[in-house]
Amino acid sequence: MIHHLSVSAADPKGAAEFFADIMNGVVVDFPPNPGSYMVFKADGHGTGIEIYPAGSVMIPNGDPGAVWVRQPEGADRRTPTHFALSVEMSQADVLARAAAKGWEAYVCDRGGHFHVIEVWIDNTWLVEVLPPAFAAEYLGFANAVSDLADPNMALEDHKPQAKTLEHA
């Protein structure tokens, strides 16, 4: 189980408020990296998202633990790192909230196995939001993969990414 993850945003507080809204969570300051916030959802699992100012990176610091430094202004903020987040909010509400932030958001089919709402935070990095129906599809797929005699066969019938189904 993943308890929390860390990301960065040009507007860390705004991103934290977005996540708290769609997760039904709370935002708190995260003083170890000034200007950062953490979102918690009281779900009994410690689910949280830390949001750092854009350009924040962690570097090793031995036994005391990692420290934060900032990349220069204008550094490329794109990354393959992303996550899927199940929410209790409707598809329409997620899309409306992304649009209100000015972020690109698309309803996408993941190879015929399940759907996600791609929300592009700051229009630079991805979170896959799964409203209840999409979460059920994803869990059905993930559980089926786990039950296969040869899990590597799970994507054998995967359809190529066709096209974006809907734009916010």
Helix content: 10-25%
Beta-strand level of the residues, as a percent range? Answer: 25-35%
N→C terminal distance = 31 Å
Largest sheet: 5 strands, mixed
Q: Count of helical segments?
A: 3
Number of strands: 11
What order do the strands of the largest sheet run in, or round the barrel if closed?
7-10-9-8-11
Derived from helix and strand composition plus strand pairing, the structural class reads alpha+beta
Gyration radius, in Å: 17 Å
Average pLDDT confidence is: 86
List unreliable stretches of 5+ residues. Answer: none
Order of helices and strands: EHEEEEEEHEEEHE
From the spread of the alpha carbons, the general shape counts as: globular
Structure commentary:
This protein has 168 residues and is α+β, with helices and mostly antiparallel strands. The chain is built from three helices and eleven strands; from the N terminus they run βαββββββαβββαβ. The chain has helices spanning 12-23, 91-101, 132-147; strands at residues 4-9, 26-30, 36-40, 48-53, 56-59, 67-70, 83-86, 105-110, 114-121, 125-130, 166-167. A five-stranded mixed β-sheet has the order 7-10-9-8-11. β2 (26-30) and β3 (36-40) form a beta hairpin. It is globular. The two termini are 31 Å apart. The mean pLDDT is 86.
